[in-house]
Design a protein that fits this description.
506 residues; alpha/beta; 26 strands
């Protein structure tokens, strides 16, 4: 570090370099490993400081595939700490491109790291190639381990033949790891302080019992395989987020999830809807239920009640329309539904109206993907039911947004039925080339047929409908007509939607 000149022309003192070594080490503590190394060129005082700082961040990614250089630097660094009896507060070791022979070096490195008295140790090991390698047993003897990330390894009885010393472990991440239930339960039973558990593609796990992990906050599980679904039992009151993709979740009846804020279930089977409905979620804000086939089968004859007074967002994607209700005091929350309409529309409108009515207090957006089917079969059987909805004490439900996907020519009868049970402010995903013809067919039909009967139920309530086109430059929707567009614009892919205005009484 160069010394600057003072006002009298003399060289000023480099006061930072004159600080005690322990202070300089503390300064480097807050730098990355790469930046800490760069300080060695500042002055003679800084030349060796980076080699003795109380934290190390060792990653082969820094060496851009040169594993030989990485191994040399790592071993020289660890040897220096041992020979000079330097202490380590923190150490992060990341090996993401090792082959099976290099992995064995971990058995030598970990004892060197632990001998430096490291208090916070983070370990990430990912072999460069697929093909499971056995994880060295020394990993499970590292009591100072706080964060463990392992991919593409085999964890068997030999790897943990001794006591697992994970008393301080807070984060566990396993991906594509071959591990069986008994071994996995032995590991997590030795992690009383664990806060984050991330399990991805560990397809040999069949059962997870995490109810005794009293500090667990974040739980993620994903296993897409043809094998038997994993059974997951989870009930720590500390849990804040649950994300499960494919599995079977078990909830204790009457459980109170005091701190849970986010629940994401994708292709998940609920063992008991009654147990779920009896649970309380006082802090739950976000709920997503996606393609839960087992859940949908149960919901055909059952009802799911979610006690979530502070709900903020609810999302549902599925083949069937479920029966779901919320107990909430929230005044501003949103619901997003994505429905795949198949060839059996039996009581489809009635079920949809019941679901929308249960979500009436939220801002609702609905996307419907309609598969090709015979028009005459779509809503003929629902006509009487729609008339009952319209004529009885079942008012149409306001929607913020309705999106339609599929063959647009099949949506006229669908819209006829939908307009009898709901009042969308916007209808999107309309192909610009067919937009005006669809609107014309919707507003004018043949007298006497059931479509016209449906139309007469909602048409008096519609005050205004207009076509809007999205202006990409201004990022706004503008009312317009396709006839107003220049010829060269009509051939382009244009985002269009209908804007509808209904009577205020609705």
């Amino acid at each position: 570090m160069k010394r600057g000149k003072g006002e009298d022309g003399s060289k000023s003192i480099d006061r930072i370099s004159e600080l005690p070594q322990c202070i300089l080490q503390r300064i480097l503590y807050f730098m990355s490993q790469e930046d800490a190394v760069r300080t060695s060129v500042l002055s003679k005082s800084w030349r060796e400081i980076w080699c003795t700082r109380p934290n190390l961040d060792l990653s082969d990614a820094t060496f851009k595939g040169n594993n030989g250089e990485f191994i040399s630097v790592l071993e020289n660094t660890l040897r220096r700490y041992c020979e000079q009896r330097l202490s380590l507060d923190e150490c992060s070791l990341s090996c993401t491109s090792f082959d099976s022979t290099s992995v064995s070096l971990i058995e030598k490195w970990i004892p060197l790291i632990t001998s430096a008295g490291v208090k916070n140790f983070r370990l990430s090991i990912v072999p460069a190639h697929f093909g499971h390698v056995k994880l060295p047993s020394v990993v499970f003897e590292t009591e100072s381990l706080r964060d463990l990330h392992v991919e593409r390894f085999i964890l068997d009885q030999k790897a943990i033949e001794k006591t697992v010393l994970f008393k301080h472990l807070k984060k566990l991440r396993l991906e594509q790891v071959c591990i069986h239930d008994r071994i996995f339960q032995k590991i997590i039973s030795s992690c009383p302080l664990i806060e984050t558990m991330f399990l991805k593609s560990c397809n040999t796990i069949r059962s997870i019992k995490a109810s005794n992990l009293r500090r667990l906050k974040d739980f993620y599980f994903s296993s897409w395989s043809d094998e038997e679904d994993c059974s997951i039992e989870i009930y720590p009151t500390s849990i804040e987020t649950i994300q499960i993709e494919s599995g079977n979740i078990l909830l204790h009846q009457g459980s109170n999830f005091l701190n849970l804020t986010s629940l994401f279930l994708d292709h998940v089977t609920l063992s008991s809807l009654d147990h779920f409905s009896s649970c309380k979620f006082p802090s739950l804000e976000n709920v997503a239920i996606l393609y839960c086939n087992g859940l949908e089968e149960s919901l055909e004859e059952s009802h799911l009640h979610i006690d979530a007074p502070n709900i903020s967002t609810f999302g549902y994607h599925g083949l069937l329309i479920p029966s779901i209700s919320f107990a909430t005091t929230s005044t501003e929350w949103s619901s997003c539904l994505y429905l795949l309409m198949r060839s059996d529309p039996s009581f489809w409108l009635l079920k949809l109206h019941k679901l929308l009515d249960s979500l009436r207090q939220s801002e609702i957006s609905v996307t419907i993907h309609q598969f090709r089917m015979n028009d005459e079969d779509i809503f003929q059987e629902n006509l009487d039911l729609v008339q009952d909805i319209k004529g009885g004490n079942k008012p149409a439900v306001p929607l913020e947004d309705l999106k339609l996907q599929g063959d647009l020519s099949y949506f006229s009868p669908l819209l006829n039925g939908l307009f009898c049970i709901c009042r969308p402010r916007k209808i999107g995903a309309i192909n610009y080339m067919n937009a005006e013809s669809v609107l014309k067919n919707l507003m004018q039909g043949e007298n006497g047929n059931y479509q016209d009967q449906l139309r007469q139920l909602w048409l008096p309530d519609l005050e205004e409908v207009s076509l809007e086109i999205y202006d990409k430059n201004r990022r706004e929707w503008d009312p317009t007509s396709l006839s107003d567009l220049p010829d060269y614009e009509v051939g382009k892919r244009i985002s269009t939607r209908f804007a509808l205005k209904w009577r205020e009484s609705l």
